[in-house]
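Let's practice the habit of predicting before peeking. Look at the sequence and jot down your guess about where helices and strands might fall. Then scroll down.
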Amino acid sequence: MADVFVFLYAMLAGFVLLAMQRNAREHRPNPQMVTMVGWGLFSLSSTLAVLLGAVALALALGLHVPLPAAFTTSPF
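Done guessing? Here is the structure:
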């Protein structure tokens, strides 16, 4: 299920970046919807970075963080 979310995130981010780059090249303002989706993706990215950074810091400090079962088994 995570692959679907990652795929949708990548497609949306690619579309927003391409649309903004094309509008900048043609000296046009960005539509409000493109700007709002861009801010939403930025918020999602920064929130996940802070949360995962906090989990990594907690694990580095030796705190017991309950992780889902998929994280405890090695895929290799």
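How did you do? The mean pLDDT is 90.
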